[in-house]
Design a protein that fits this description.
The complex is a heterodimer of chains A (306) and B (253).
Chain A: E1 2-13, E2 16-27, E3 31-35, H1 42-50, E4 57-62, E5 65-66, H2 71-77, E6 78-81, H3 93-103, H4 108-121, H5 137-149, E7 155-159, H6 167-182, E8 186-191, H7 194-200, E9 203-208, E10 211-216, H8 218-225, E11 228-234, H9 241-244, E12 250-253, E13 256-261, H10 264-277, E14 282-289, H11 292-300
Parallel strand pairs in A: 3-8, 3-9, 6-7, 7-8
Antiparallel strand pairs in A: 1-2, 1-4, 4-5, 9-10, 11-13, 11-14, 12-13
Helix pairs in contact in A: 3-4, 8-11
Chain B: H1 3-19, H2 21-24, H3 26-44, H4 55-85, H5 89-93, H6 99-129, H7 136-160, H8 164-181, H9 193-199, H10 203-216, H11 223-247
The chains are: A alpha/beta (306), B mainly alpha (253).
Chain lengths: 306, 253
Protein backbone atom coordinates (compact mmCIF):
# COMPACT_ATOMS: atom_id res chain seq x y z
CA UNK A 1 0.00 0.00 0.00
CA UNK A 2 1.26 3.47 -0.86
CA UNK A 3 1.26 5.76 2.12
CA UNK A 4 1.82 8.88 0.03
CA UNK A 5 1.37 9.35 -3.69
CA UNK A 6 1.98 12.64 -5.44
CA UNK A 7 1.33 13.01 -9.16
CA UNK A 8 2.14 15.96 -11.41
CA UNK A 9 2.09 18.44 -8.56
CA UNK A 10 2.46 22.08 -9.59
CA UNK A 11 2.47 25.24 -7.56
CA UNK A 12 3.63 28.77 -8.12
CA UNK A 13 3.89 31.77 -5.82
CA UNK A 14 3.09 34.85 -7.87
CA UNK A 15 5.66 34.62 -10.67
CA UNK A 16 7.90 31.99 -9.06
CA UNK A 17 7.35 28.38 -10.04
CA UNK A 18 7.82 26.46 -6.78
CA UNK A 19 6.79 22.98 -7.95
CA UNK A 20 7.00 21.97 -11.56
CA UNK A 21 5.31 18.59 -11.83
CA UNK A 22 6.48 16.67 -8.77
CA UNK A 23 5.86 12.91 -8.77
CA UNK A 24 6.55 10.90 -5.63
CA UNK A 25 5.49 7.57 -4.28
CA UNK A 26 6.20 6.47 -0.72
CA UNK A 27 5.36 2.98 0.47
CA UNK A 28 3.78 2.25 3.83
CA UNK A 29 6.49 1.77 6.44
CA UNK A 30 9.18 3.43 4.35
CA UNK A 31 11.72 5.94 5.66
CA UNK A 32 11.88 8.43 2.82
CA UNK A 33 14.04 11.50 2.42
CA UNK A 34 13.33 14.53 0.30
CA UNK A 35 16.71 16.02 -0.30
CA UNK A 36 17.33 19.47 -1.70
CA UNK A 37 18.76 22.90 -1.03
CA UNK A 38 16.73 25.75 0.47
CA UNK A 39 13.99 26.85 -1.90
CA UNK A 40 13.97 23.56 -3.84
CA UNK A 41 10.27 22.89 -3.12
CA UNK A 42 10.52 20.48 -0.15
CA UNK A 43 8.40 22.49 2.27
CA UNK A 44 5.85 23.42 -0.40
CA UNK A 45 5.39 19.74 -1.22
CA UNK A 46 4.71 18.73 2.37
CA UNK A 47 2.57 21.81 3.02
CA UNK A 48 0.32 20.80 0.15
CA UNK A 49 0.07 17.29 1.61
CA UNK A 50 -0.95 18.63 5.01
CA UNK A 51 -3.34 21.31 3.75
CA UNK A 52 -1.36 24.46 4.46
CA UNK A 53 -0.83 25.31 0.82
CA UNK A 54 -3.30 25.05 -2.07
CA UNK A 55 -2.18 22.87 -4.95
CA UNK A 56 -2.62 24.19 -8.48
CA UNK A 57 -2.33 21.06 -10.55
CA UNK A 58 -1.83 17.38 -9.86
CA UNK A 59 -3.02 15.05 -7.13
CA UNK A 60 -1.91 14.28 -3.58
CA UNK A 61 -3.07 11.05 -2.00
CA UNK A 62 -2.57 9.63 1.48
CA UNK A 63 -3.36 5.92 1.75
CA UNK A 64 -5.21 6.29 -1.53
CA UNK A 65 -7.42 9.18 -0.41
CA UNK A 66 -7.34 12.72 -1.72
CA UNK A 67 -5.87 15.23 0.72
CA UNK A 68 -8.47 17.88 -0.18
CA UNK A 69 -11.65 15.86 -0.59
CA UNK A 70 -10.95 13.45 2.28
CA UNK A 71 -8.98 15.89 4.43
CA UNK A 72 -10.30 14.53 7.74
CA UNK A 73 -9.00 11.06 6.96
CA UNK A 74 -5.68 12.15 5.43
CA UNK A 75 -4.83 14.72 8.10
CA UNK A 76 -5.62 12.30 10.91
CA UNK A 77 -3.07 9.91 9.41
CA UNK A 78 -0.30 12.52 9.34
CA UNK A 79 1.72 14.05 12.14
CA UNK A 80 3.89 16.95 11.10
CA UNK A 81 6.86 18.55 12.80
CA UNK A 82 7.25 21.86 11.00
CA UNK A 83 10.56 23.56 10.42
CA UNK A 84 9.35 26.84 11.94
CA UNK A 85 9.10 26.68 15.71
CA UNK A 86 5.88 28.13 17.07
CA UNK A 87 5.58 30.38 20.10
CA UNK A 88 2.85 30.42 22.74
CA UNK A 89 2.53 32.84 25.63
CA UNK A 90 -0.41 31.37 27.47
CA UNK A 91 -0.13 27.66 28.15
CA UNK A 92 2.31 25.09 29.50
CA UNK A 93 3.78 22.65 27.01
CA UNK A 94 1.77 19.82 28.55
CA UNK A 95 -1.45 21.78 28.02
CA UNK A 96 -0.42 22.52 24.44
CA UNK A 97 -0.01 18.80 23.83
CA UNK A 98 -3.51 18.18 25.22
CA UNK A 99 -4.86 20.78 22.79
CA UNK A 100 -2.99 19.20 19.91
CA UNK A 101 -4.37 15.76 20.82
CA UNK A 102 -7.87 17.24 21.08
CA UNK A 103 -7.72 18.77 17.60
CA UNK A 104 -7.16 15.23 16.32
CA UNK A 105 -10.19 13.94 18.20
CA UNK A 106 -8.41 12.23 21.11
CA UNK A 107 -10.32 12.23 24.37
CA UNK A 108 -8.49 13.55 27.45
CA UNK A 109 -8.24 10.03 28.85
CA UNK A 110 -6.58 8.61 25.75
CA UNK A 111 -4.36 11.68 25.35
CA UNK A 112 -3.14 11.52 28.96
CA UNK A 113 -1.32 8.23 28.49
CA UNK A 114 0.28 9.27 25.22
CA UNK A 115 1.37 12.66 26.51
CA UNK A 116 2.93 11.20 29.66
CA UNK A 117 4.77 8.67 27.54
CA UNK A 118 5.99 11.24 25.00
CA UNK A 119 7.17 13.67 27.66
CA UNK A 120 9.27 10.91 29.21
CA UNK A 121 10.62 9.54 25.92
CA UNK A 122 11.57 12.98 24.65
CA UNK A 123 13.02 14.01 28.00
CA UNK A 124 10.58 16.88 28.54
CA UNK A 125 8.92 15.57 31.71
CA UNK A 126 10.64 18.06 33.99
CA UNK A 127 9.62 20.93 31.74
CA UNK A 128 5.98 19.97 31.33
CA UNK A 129 4.73 23.01 33.25
CA UNK A 130 7.04 25.43 31.45
CA UNK A 131 5.97 27.82 28.71
CA UNK A 132 7.49 27.36 25.26
CA UNK A 133 9.62 30.50 25.57
CA UNK A 134 11.32 28.97 28.61
CA UNK A 135 12.64 26.00 26.62
CA UNK A 136 16.02 25.78 24.94
CA UNK A 137 16.24 25.40 21.16
CA UNK A 138 16.78 21.65 21.45
CA UNK A 139 13.82 21.25 23.80
CA UNK A 140 11.62 23.19 21.40
CA UNK A 141 12.61 20.78 18.62
CA UNK A 142 11.73 17.82 20.84
CA UNK A 143 8.41 19.46 21.74
CA UNK A 144 7.74 19.94 18.02
CA UNK A 145 8.26 16.20 17.57
CA UNK A 146 6.02 15.37 20.55
CA UNK A 147 3.28 17.49 18.97
CA UNK A 148 3.61 15.57 15.70
CA UNK A 149 3.37 12.22 17.49
CA UNK A 150 0.65 12.95 20.03
CA UNK A 151 -2.18 11.40 18.00
CA UNK A 152 -0.09 8.35 17.07
CA UNK A 153 -0.11 9.01 13.30
CA UNK A 154 0.80 6.38 10.71
CA UNK A 155 2.78 8.91 8.69
CA UNK A 156 5.26 11.27 10.29
CA UNK A 157 6.44 14.23 8.25
CA UNK A 158 9.52 16.00 9.54
CA UNK A 159 10.54 19.23 7.89
CA UNK A 160 14.24 19.76 8.58
CA UNK A 161 13.90 18.21 12.06
CA UNK A 162 17.50 18.77 13.06
CA UNK A 163 18.00 22.26 11.64
CA UNK A 164 19.99 24.32 14.11
CA UNK A 165 20.43 21.61 16.76
CA UNK A 166 23.75 20.47 18.22
CA UNK A 167 25.44 17.23 17.22
CA UNK A 168 24.46 15.36 20.38
CA UNK A 169 20.77 16.15 20.04
CA UNK A 170 20.87 15.41 16.33
CA UNK A 171 22.16 11.93 17.03
CA UNK A 172 19.61 11.28 19.77
CA UNK A 173 16.81 12.46 17.47
CA UNK A 174 18.11 10.16 14.74
CA UNK A 175 17.99 7.25 17.15
CA UNK A 176 14.44 8.13 18.17
CA UNK A 177 13.36 8.35 14.52
CA UNK A 178 14.93 4.98 13.79
CA UNK A 179 13.03 3.47 16.73
CA UNK A 180 9.80 4.99 15.45
CA UNK A 181 10.43 3.60 12.01
CA UNK A 182 11.05 0.17 13.51
CA UNK A 183 7.49 0.25 14.90
CA UNK A 184 6.16 0.45 11.33
CA UNK A 185 5.67 4.18 10.92
CA UNK A 186 6.09 5.77 7.51
CA UNK A 187 8.48 8.68 7.77
CA UNK A 188 8.96 11.47 5.26
CA UNK A 189 11.93 13.61 6.09
CA UNK A 190 13.02 16.75 4.32
CA UNK A 191 16.58 17.73 4.86
CA UNK A 192 19.57 19.36 3.34
CA UNK A 193 21.92 17.40 5.60
CA UNK A 194 23.44 14.70 3.44
CA UNK A 195 24.53 12.64 6.41
CA UNK A 196 21.01 12.63 7.82
CA UNK A 197 19.55 11.28 4.59
CA UNK A 198 22.31 8.68 4.20
CA UNK A 199 22.03 7.45 7.78
CA UNK A 200 18.25 7.29 8.04
CA UNK A 201 16.52 6.95 4.70
CA UNK A 202 15.79 3.79 2.78
CA UNK A 203 14.94 5.85 -0.26
CA UNK A 204 15.56 9.45 -1.18
CA UNK A 205 14.36 11.80 -3.87
CA UNK A 206 16.57 14.65 -4.94
CA UNK A 207 14.57 17.79 -5.59
CA UNK A 208 15.74 21.04 -7.09
CA UNK A 209 13.89 23.99 -8.61
CA UNK A 210 10.55 22.25 -8.04
CA UNK A 211 11.43 19.03 -9.86
CA UNK A 212 12.41 15.56 -8.68
CA UNK A 213 15.73 14.88 -10.40
CA UNK A 214 16.42 11.37 -9.14
CA UNK A 215 14.87 8.83 -6.81
CA UNK A 216 16.14 5.62 -5.25
CA UNK A 217 18.05 4.20 -2.32
CA UNK A 218 21.18 6.18 -1.32
CA UNK A 219 23.25 3.10 -2.22
CA UNK A 220 21.70 2.74 -5.65
CA UNK A 221 22.09 6.43 -6.44
CA UNK A 222 25.75 6.53 -5.46
CA UNK A 223 26.47 3.31 -7.34
CA UNK A 224 24.70 4.60 -10.44
CA UNK A 225 26.79 7.72 -10.38
CA UNK A 226 29.92 5.61 -10.33
CA UNK A 227 32.00 8.64 -9.58
CA UNK A 228 33.98 9.24 -6.47
CA UNK A 229 34.86 12.14 -4.25
CA UNK A 230 38.03 13.98 -3.35
CA UNK A 231 38.16 16.06 -0.20
CA UNK A 232 40.92 18.61 0.19
CA UNK A 233 41.49 20.75 3.26
CA UNK A 234 43.18 24.06 2.51
CA UNK A 235 45.34 26.09 4.79
CA UNK A 236 43.20 29.10 4.10
CA UNK A 237 40.06 29.91 2.20
CA UNK A 238 41.00 31.55 -1.09
CA UNK A 239 38.59 33.96 -2.72
CA UNK A 240 39.28 33.07 -6.35
CA UNK A 241 38.60 29.32 -6.16
CA UNK A 242 35.61 29.48 -8.50
CA UNK A 243 37.83 30.90 -11.26
CA UNK A 244 40.76 28.60 -10.58
CA UNK A 245 38.64 25.45 -10.41
CA UNK A 246 36.11 26.40 -13.07
CA UNK A 247 36.50 23.01 -14.80
CA UNK A 248 35.43 20.99 -11.75
CA UNK A 249 32.22 20.33 -9.80
CA UNK A 250 33.01 21.12 -6.20
CA UNK A 251 31.56 22.39 -2.95
CA UNK A 252 33.33 24.64 -0.50
CA UNK A 253 32.66 24.69 3.21
CA UNK A 254 35.10 27.06 4.94
CA UNK A 255 38.50 25.46 4.18
CA UNK A 256 37.05 22.09 3.02
CA UNK A 257 36.86 21.53 -0.72
CA UNK A 258 34.88 18.55 -1.97
CA UNK A 259 35.07 17.40 -5.61
CA UNK A 260 32.81 14.98 -7.39
CA UNK A 261 34.86 13.24 -10.09
CA UNK A 262 34.53 10.20 -12.35
CA UNK A 263 38.02 8.88 -11.66
CA UNK A 264 39.78 10.10 -8.56
CA UNK A 265 43.16 8.59 -9.57
CA UNK A 266 43.13 10.66 -12.72
CA UNK A 267 41.63 13.83 -11.33
CA UNK A 268 43.52 14.12 -8.03
CA UNK A 269 46.98 15.00 -9.44
CA UNK A 270 45.44 17.52 -11.82
CA UNK A 271 43.50 19.25 -9.06
CA UNK A 272 46.55 19.35 -6.78
CA UNK A 273 48.61 20.74 -9.67
CA UNK A 274 46.01 23.44 -10.40
CA UNK A 275 45.88 24.50 -6.76
CA UNK A 276 49.67 24.54 -6.42
CA UNK A 277 50.06 26.59 -9.62
CA UNK A 278 47.80 29.19 -8.07
CA UNK A 279 49.76 29.30 -4.81
CA UNK A 280 46.98 27.68 -2.80
CA UNK A 281 48.47 25.64 0.05
CA UNK A 282 46.96 22.23 0.72
CA UNK A 283 46.73 20.83 4.23
CA UNK A 284 45.40 17.34 3.47
CA UNK A 285 43.95 15.32 0.60
CA UNK A 286 41.57 12.41 0.88
CA UNK A 287 39.89 10.22 -1.73
CA UNK A 288 36.37 9.16 -0.73
CA UNK A 289 33.75 6.92 -2.27
CA UNK A 290 30.68 8.59 -3.78
CA UNK A 291 28.14 10.00 -1.41
CA UNK A 292 24.74 11.61 -1.84
CA UNK A 293 26.62 14.88 -1.77
CA UNK A 294 28.35 13.82 -5.00
CA UNK A 295 25.08 12.64 -6.51
CA UNK A 296 23.51 15.99 -5.74
CA UNK A 297 26.48 17.89 -7.07
CA UNK A 298 26.53 15.81 -10.24
CA UNK A 299 22.80 16.29 -10.85
CA UNK A 300 22.52 19.97 -10.10
CA UNK A 301 26.02 21.37 -10.22
CA UNK A 302 25.13 23.04 -6.91
CA UNK A 303 26.18 22.80 -3.31
CA UNK A 304 23.21 21.50 -1.33
CA UNK A 305 24.09 23.65 1.64
CA UNK A 306 23.90 26.89 -0.31
CA UNK B 1 -18.07 16.83 12.64
CA UNK B 2 -14.94 16.63 14.79
CA UNK B 3 -16.68 17.38 18.11
CA UNK B 4 -13.67 16.79 20.32
CA UNK B 5 -11.49 18.99 18.11
CA UNK B 6 -14.16 21.68 18.07
CA UNK B 7 -14.64 21.56 21.84
CA UNK B 8 -10.84 21.63 22.34
CA UNK B 9 -10.50 24.82 20.33
CA UNK B 10 -13.37 26.48 22.21
CA UNK B 11 -11.70 25.43 25.44
CA UNK B 12 -8.38 26.87 24.26
CA UNK B 13 -9.95 30.18 23.27
CA UNK B 14 -11.77 30.55 26.58
CA UNK B 15 -8.74 29.39 28.57
CA UNK B 16 -6.57 31.89 26.72
CA UNK B 17 -8.49 34.96 27.86
CA UNK B 18 -9.15 33.66 31.35
CA UNK B 19 -5.42 32.98 31.81
CA UNK B 20 -4.80 36.71 31.33
CA UNK B 21 -7.93 38.02 33.05
CA UNK B 22 -6.01 41.08 34.23
CA UNK B 23 -5.86 42.14 30.59
CA UNK B 24 -9.15 40.77 29.38
CA UNK B 25 -11.70 41.05 32.17
CA UNK B 26 -10.59 43.51 34.84
CA UNK B 27 -9.83 46.57 32.63
CA UNK B 28 -13.42 46.69 31.35
CA UNK B 29 -14.74 46.62 34.91
CA UNK B 30 -12.33 49.30 36.10
CA UNK B 31 -12.96 51.66 33.20
CA UNK B 32 -16.72 51.17 33.52
CA UNK B 33 -16.52 51.95 37.25
CA UNK B 34 -14.57 55.12 36.38
CA UNK B 35 -17.11 56.14 33.73
CA UNK B 36 -19.90 55.65 36.28
CA UNK B 37 -18.07 57.64 38.95
CA UNK B 38 -16.68 60.43 36.79
CA UNK B 39 -19.24 60.85 34.02
CA UNK B 40 -22.26 59.45 35.80
CA UNK B 41 -22.18 60.74 39.34
CA UNK B 42 -20.40 64.02 38.50
CA UNK B 43 -22.49 65.00 35.49
CA UNK B 44 -25.66 63.78 37.16
CA UNK B 45 -25.53 66.95 39.30
CA UNK B 46 -25.64 69.11 36.15
CA UNK B 47 -27.62 67.03 33.66
CA UNK B 48 -31.25 66.56 34.41
CA UNK B 49 -32.87 63.22 33.72
CA UNK B 50 -32.94 61.87 30.16
CA UNK B 51 -36.22 60.24 29.15
CA UNK B 52 -37.16 60.07 32.81
CA UNK B 53 -34.08 58.24 34.13
CA UNK B 54 -30.98 59.49 35.94
CA UNK B 55 -27.88 60.16 33.85
CA UNK B 56 -25.92 57.34 35.53
CA UNK B 57 -28.59 54.81 34.68
CA UNK B 58 -28.87 56.26 31.19
CA UNK B 59 -25.22 55.65 30.34
CA UNK B 60 -24.97 52.19 31.92
CA UNK B 61 -26.58 50.16 29.08
CA UNK B 62 -24.16 51.87 26.67
CA UNK B 63 -21.20 50.97 28.88
CA UNK B 64 -22.38 47.35 29.01
CA UNK B 65 -22.69 47.29 25.23
CA UNK B 66 -19.30 48.95 24.69
CA UNK B 67 -17.57 46.39 26.92
CA UNK B 68 -19.42 43.52 25.35
CA UNK B 69 -18.65 44.35 21.76
CA UNK B 70 -15.09 45.56 22.26
CA UNK B 71 -14.13 42.43 24.22
CA UNK B 72 -15.86 40.07 21.82
CA UNK B 73 -14.06 41.72 18.89
CA UNK B 74 -10.71 41.80 20.68
CA UNK B 75 -10.79 38.11 21.59
CA UNK B 76 -11.15 36.68 18.12
CA UNK B 77 -9.14 39.33 16.31
CA UNK B 78 -6.14 39.21 18.63
CA UNK B 79 -6.18 35.43 18.97
CA UNK B 80 -6.31 34.88 15.21
CA UNK B 81 -3.63 37.46 14.44
CA UNK B 82 -1.43 36.15 17.24
CA UNK B 83 -1.74 32.59 15.98
CA UNK B 84 -0.82 33.77 12.51
CA UNK B 85 2.19 35.78 13.60
CA UNK B 86 3.49 33.23 16.13
CA UNK B 87 3.28 30.27 13.77
CA UNK B 88 0.55 28.52 15.77
CA UNK B 89 -2.04 28.54 13.03
CA UNK B 90 -0.48 25.64 11.07
CA UNK B 91 -1.33 23.40 14.07
CA UNK B 92 -5.01 24.10 13.43
CA UNK B 93 -4.91 24.14 9.66
CA UNK B 94 -3.17 20.76 9.44
CA UNK B 95 -5.56 19.15 11.93
CA UNK B 96 -8.73 17.34 10.81
CA UNK B 97 -10.87 20.42 11.49
CA UNK B 98 -13.04 22.07 8.84
CA UNK B 99 -13.18 25.82 8.22
CA UNK B 100 -16.66 26.01 9.76
CA UNK B 101 -15.51 24.17 12.93
CA UNK B 102 -12.51 26.48 13.34
CA UNK B 103 -14.60 29.64 12.76
CA UNK B 104 -17.41 28.65 15.10
CA UNK B 105 -15.00 27.61 17.86
CA UNK B 106 -13.27 30.99 17.64
CA UNK B 107 -16.60 32.83 17.56
CA UNK B 108 -17.86 30.98 20.66
CA UNK B 109 -14.63 31.85 22.50
CA UNK B 110 -15.11 35.54 21.68
CA UNK B 111 -18.82 35.38 22.51
CA UNK B 112 -18.06 34.01 25.97
CA UNK B 113 -15.55 36.81 26.61
CA UNK B 114 -18.04 39.43 25.39
CA UNK B 115 -20.79 38.00 27.60
CA UNK B 116 -18.55 37.69 30.67
CA UNK B 117 -17.53 41.34 30.33
CA UNK B 118 -21.03 42.60 29.55
CA UNK B 119 -22.63 40.72 32.43
CA UNK B 120 -19.94 41.85 34.88
CA UNK B 121 -20.55 45.50 33.98
CA UNK B 122 -24.28 44.88 34.35
CA UNK B 123 -23.63 43.52 37.87
CA UNK B 124 -21.40 46.50 38.60
CA UNK B 125 -24.17 48.87 37.55
CA UNK B 126 -26.71 47.09 39.72
CA UNK B 127 -24.26 47.09 42.62
CA UNK B 128 -23.04 50.70 42.43
CA UNK B 129 -26.11 52.53 41.22
CA UNK B 130 -28.98 50.14 41.88
CA UNK B 131 -29.68 49.89 38.15
CA UNK B 132 -33.11 48.31 37.63
CA UNK B 133 -33.31 45.67 34.89
CA UNK B 134 -36.79 45.53 33.43
CA UNK B 135 -36.28 42.56 31.10
CA UNK B 136 -33.37 40.37 32.15
CA UNK B 137 -34.03 37.75 29.46
CA UNK B 138 -34.04 40.41 26.70
CA UNK B 139 -30.88 41.98 28.15
CA UNK B 140 -28.99 38.69 28.19
CA UNK B 141 -30.23 37.88 24.70
CA UNK B 142 -28.94 41.24 23.46
CA UNK B 143 -25.59 40.73 25.15
CA UNK B 144 -25.39 37.28 23.56
CA UNK B 145 -26.30 38.45 20.05
CA UNK B 146 -23.94 41.41 20.11
CA UNK B 147 -21.13 39.24 21.51
CA UNK B 148 -21.63 36.70 18.73
CA UNK B 149 -21.89 39.33 15.96
CA UNK B 150 -18.80 41.25 17.03
CA UNK B 151 -16.84 38.11 17.82
CA UNK B 152 -17.47 37.05 14.20
CA UNK B 153 -16.45 40.49 12.97
CA UNK B 154 -13.25 40.26 15.04
CA UNK B 155 -12.42 36.94 13.43
CA UNK B 156 -12.75 38.51 9.99
CA UNK B 157 -10.48 41.37 11.05
CA UNK B 158 -7.94 39.00 12.62
CA UNK B 159 -7.78 36.88 9.49
CA UNK B 160 -7.41 39.85 7.15
CA UNK B 161 -4.97 41.90 9.25
CA UNK B 162 -1.28 41.37 8.57
CA UNK B 163 0.10 43.11 11.64
CA UNK B 164 -0.86 44.71 14.94
CA UNK B 165 -0.79 48.15 13.38
CA UNK B 166 -3.62 47.32 10.99
CA UNK B 167 -5.56 45.79 13.85
CA UNK B 168 -5.10 48.83 16.07
CA UNK B 169 -6.23 51.03 13.20
CA UNK B 170 -9.55 49.19 12.96
CA UNK B 171 -10.01 49.41 16.70
CA UNK B 172 -9.03 53.06 17.11
CA UNK B 173 -10.44 54.58 13.94
CA UNK B 174 -13.66 52.62 13.58
CA UNK B 175 -14.83 50.58 16.54
CA UNK B 176 -14.12 53.03 19.37
CA UNK B 177 -15.47 56.13 17.56
CA UNK B 178 -18.57 54.25 16.39
CA UNK B 179 -19.18 53.06 19.97
CA UNK B 180 -18.91 56.55 21.40
CA UNK B 181 -21.01 58.04 18.57
CA UNK B 182 -23.62 55.31 19.07
CA UNK B 183 -25.14 57.23 21.95
CA UNK B 184 -23.53 55.80 25.08
CA UNK B 185 -23.45 59.15 26.83
CA UNK B 186 -26.31 60.99 25.14
CA UNK B 187 -29.62 60.62 23.41
CA UNK B 188 -29.37 61.40 19.70
CA UNK B 189 -32.33 63.72 20.20
CA UNK B 190 -29.78 66.10 21.78
CA UNK B 191 -27.88 66.27 18.45
CA UNK B 192 -28.52 68.53 15.46
CA UNK B 193 -30.73 66.96 12.82
CA UNK B 194 -27.89 66.09 10.42
CA UNK B 195 -26.02 64.29 13.20
CA UNK B 196 -29.18 62.41 14.16
CA UNK B 197 -29.51 61.19 10.55
CA UNK B 198 -25.86 60.22 10.50
CA UNK B 199 -26.28 58.21 13.71
CA UNK B 200 -28.85 56.02 11.98
CA UNK B 201 -26.19 54.42 9.76
CA UNK B 202 -24.09 53.46 12.78
CA UNK B 203 -24.96 49.83 13.68
CA UNK B 204 -23.70 50.28 17.23
CA UNK B 205 -26.40 52.93 17.79
CA UNK B 206 -29.02 50.17 17.46
CA UNK B 207 -27.14 47.83 19.81
CA UNK B 208 -26.88 50.48 22.53
CA UNK B 209 -30.50 51.57 22.24
CA UNK B 210 -31.71 48.00 22.06
CA UNK B 211 -30.16 47.07 25.38
CA UNK B 212 -31.28 50.40 26.83
CA UNK B 213 -34.83 49.32 25.97
CA UNK B 214 -34.48 45.92 27.64
CA UNK B 215 -32.92 47.41 30.80
CA UNK B 216 -34.68 50.75 31.21
CA UNK B 217 -37.62 50.52 28.83
CA UNK B 218 -36.44 53.62 26.92
CA UNK B 219 -34.35 54.20 23.80
CA UNK B 220 -34.00 56.31 20.67
CA UNK B 221 -34.65 53.44 18.25
CA UNK B 222 -37.47 50.94 18.55
CA UNK B 223 -36.71 47.63 20.23
CA UNK B 224 -37.87 45.75 17.16
CA UNK B 225 -35.48 47.58 14.84
CA UNK B 226 -32.58 47.20 17.29
CA UNK B 227 -33.26 43.49 17.70
CA UNK B 228 -33.58 43.00 13.93
CA UNK B 229 -30.32 44.84 13.40
CA UNK B 230 -28.56 42.60 15.96
CA UNK B 231 -29.89 39.49 14.18
CA UNK B 232 -28.83 40.81 10.75
CA UNK B 233 -25.31 41.67 12.00
CA UNK B 234 -24.98 38.28 13.67
CA UNK B 235 -25.89 36.36 10.52
CA UNK B 236 -23.91 38.63 8.23
CA UNK B 237 -20.63 38.42 10.15
CA UNK B 238 -21.01 34.71 10.97
CA UNK B 239 -21.48 33.80 7.31
CA UNK B 240 -18.68 36.15 6.27
CA UNK B 241 -16.22 34.75 8.80
CA UNK B 242 -17.01 31.12 7.94
CA UNK B 243 -16.67 31.76 4.20
CA UNK B 244 -13.44 33.64 4.73
CA UNK B 245 -12.00 30.82 6.85
CA UNK B 246 -13.01 28.25 4.25
CA UNK B 247 -11.39 30.35 1.51
CA UNK B 248 -8.09 30.33 3.41
CA UNK B 249 -7.49 33.99 2.49
CA UNK B 250 -4.34 35.37 4.12
CA UNK B 251 -3.80 32.15 6.09
CA UNK B 252 -3.04 29.70 3.29
CA UNK B 253 -1.15 30.28 0.07
Amino acid sequence: MKAIEILGLKKSYEKTLALNGVNLSIKEGEFFGLLGPNGAGKTTTINILTGLVFREEGSTLVFGKDTVKDFRFTRSKIGIAAQELSVDWFFSIEKLLYFQAGYYGLSKKVAKKRIEDLLIRLDLQKKKDSRLRQLSGGMKRRFQLAKALVHDPDIIILDEPTAGVDVELRRSLWKYLKDLHATGKTILLTTHYIEEAEKLCENVAIIDEGKILKEGSPKKLTQELGSSGITIHLNENKQNLNTVLADYSFTLDQDRLHFSVKDSDLAMPKIIQTLSNNNITIQSVEATSSSLEDVFLDLTGKDINK
Amino acid sequence: MNWIGFYTLVNREVGRFFSVYRQTVLPGLISSALYILIFGFTLEQRISEIDGVSYTWYILPGLIMMNTLSNATANTSSSMLQMKLLQQLPDLLTAPLSGIEISLAYIIGGTIRGMVNGILVLFLGVLISGLPVQNIFGTLLFIFLVSWAFSSMGLVLGQLAENWDQMAMMQNFFLTPLSFLGGIFYSIKMLPEWAQTLSLINPIYYMINGIRHTILGIGDSSLFISFSMAIILTFFFTILSVLLMQSGKKIKV
